[in-house]
């Protein structure tokens, strides 16, 4: 026993191990700070989802921090998209869909009686895998949401269109062709346009479902940079297949497997010191 202790002591004494222990302690401290600094924006409690009688999400419990980037990772078919869809009620109870448990946004159960789905959706912008601009001009794509909310003055709309195109990092590329059809833009530009269109209705939360997977590397990098720039103002939740992307931009990570949340935590700690064997195996590439 004493020999073992001495061995551990000696091991921790080595400079590399000391650095590792120091780094892990620092990661843990950073993680605690993230959790303290960012109160939960979305909380999921005992969530079970059945699609055509298949049990897809199994007793999911988690908190998504406010004003941070949360990445949901896990192998194909583990339920990432289904989970994301429950956040803005894209999944509704119906003959084929049964939802049990609570999804709380700002403390309100969004599946509760009397909750207007429009009010929930207004809080969230959704970026899907393939950009889907509306079949109208670049200008009208951005002005669409504000017009629906009653904004008609041309001057106000001009200001808004410029503001949100700038926020999405697209203004300089399109300012001279605002009347052109949105479909004339490249796919990467269309994705930034969709981001600007979403921002124009002033959401609190941005959801992304594989939002960069259809893009070339440069466009993908621009969208990633945009997420990082926007995270001070919005809570961002991203489903991603790309572990490298999660390592680059996540503040908080949720790892799912076969419909269950296996592990969730602050990114630095999650990647450097995963607790669960399955998480370690996934991070080491034993399965993908
Ligand atoms: N309408 C449906 N009826 C029955 N099963 C469904 C239905 N829609 C999805 N599923 C199943 O639910 C599971 C979770 O699907 P989901 O799309 O959420 O996974 P995912 O982790 O996002 O996968 P991927 O990474 O491949 O997009 C899968 O096994 C899928 O086949």
UniProtKB/TrEMBL annotation:
GO biological-process terms attached to the record: phosphate ion transmembrane transport
GO cellular component: membrane
Entry keyword annotation includes Nucleotide-binding: yes
Keyword ATP-binding on entry: yes
CDD domains cross-referenced by the UniProt entry: ABC_PstB_phosphate_transporter (cd03260)
Domain of life: Bacteria
A Pfam entry, by short name: ABC_tran
Domain ABC transporter: 42-283
Keywords per UniProt: ATP-binding, Nucleotide-binding, Phosphate transport, Transport
InterPro entries: AAA+_ATPase (IPR003593), ABC_transporter-like_ATP-bd (IPR003439), P-loop_NTPase (IPR027417), PstB-like (IPR005670)
Molecular function GO labels: ATP binding; ATP hydrolysis activity; phosphate transmembrane transporter activity
Record-given protein name: Phosphate transport ATP-binding protein PstB
Source organism per UniProt: Aquipluma nitroreducens
